[in-house]
UniProtKB/TrEMBL annotation:
Gene3D superfamilies attached to this UniProt entry: P-loop containing nucleotide triphosphate hydrolases
Cited Pfam families: ABC_tran
GO molecular function: ATP binding; ATP hydrolysis activity
Protein name: ABC transporter ATP-binding protein
Domain ABC transporter: 7-244
UniProt cross-references to SUPFAM superfamilies, sorted A to Z: P-loop containing nucleoside triphosphate hydrolases (SSF52540)
Species name: Planotetraspora thailandica
PANTHER family, per database record: CARBOHYDRATE TRANSPORT ATP-BINDING PROTEIN MG119-RELATED (PTHR43790), SUGAR ABC TRANSPORTER ATP-BINDING PROTEIN (PTHR43790:SF8)
Entries under InterPro entries matching the protein: AAA+_ATPase (IPR003593), ABC_carbohydrate_import_ATPase (IPR050107), ABC_transporter-like_ATP-bd (IPR003439), P-loop_NTPase (IPR027417)
Amino acid sequence: MSQGPVLELRGINKSFGAVQVLHDVAFSAYSGEVTALVGDNGAGKSTLVKCIGGIHPIDTGEYFFDGEKVHVSGPRDAAALGVEIVYQDLALCDNLDIVQNMFLGREKTSGLVLDEATMEEMAAKTLDGLSVRTVKSIRQLVSSLSGGQRQTVAIAKAVLWNSKVVVLDEPTAALGVAQTAQVLELVRRLADNGLAVVLISHNMNDVFAVSDRVAALYLGRMAAQVKTSEVTHSQVVELITAGRSGELGIKNGNGAAS
C-alpha cells in the first residue's frame, strides 16, 4: 500500500453558470484501498467524478496523480494517467460479446485485421485475475448476461488498461442480494490487487462491507474523509444529511474538518 494518495484533489471549485456545485473540495484515493464517496442527491458526487474523469474542466483547484501535479483537460488525459470510470449506465453494447465490449474503441489489430486471439487472451486473463467465475464464455453476448455479470464485465473492461484508479458509480444499485455480494467481492479484490477504488454508493451496508475510507459530501463541500473503522453507520448518515456529526464535519458552514 502506498504512503501517499495516488489521486489527490485540492481546493476544487466547479460552477455551472451562476450555480456553484463544488466548494473547495479536497479528495484523496489510495492504492490498495476502497474509498467510498457518499452524499445525498445533489451533494456533488457526480460532478466530482466527472472532474476526476476529465469530463468537466475544474474551475479552480489542483489535481495530483502519484504525487505530481497534473492538468486533466479531457477524458483521454484521465485515461492516460490510469483513471477509469464505470458509470451507472455501464456503456455496454448488448449486440456485442464480452471480448468485443472490453475492447470497444481500443481494438487490437494485426495489420488490417482484428487480432481476435490477443484480445481473447487479454480478456480471459483479466477476468481470471479478478477471479470471475460467473461468466460461461467470453464470447457470450452481453444481452444474455445478468445485471451482476454486466457489472463485472464493465469493471473488467476498466481494469484491462493498466488502470491505477477505478471509479465505480453505484455498481450494486440495480442488483439483487446474491449479485450484490459478487460485485462487492470483486470491488474488494480490485483494491487487494493494488488499485485505488472509489466506490459511489447510497447503500451504507455496502460502504461498511468493503470500504477502507469514507468521503462524505454535503451540499458540494467535503464534510469529512475518514477511515471507515473510525466512524459508525449513524455518524456517516449524519455527515450526509447534516454535514456534521459531533466533532466531525463542516464547522460553522465555512471549511471542513475531518
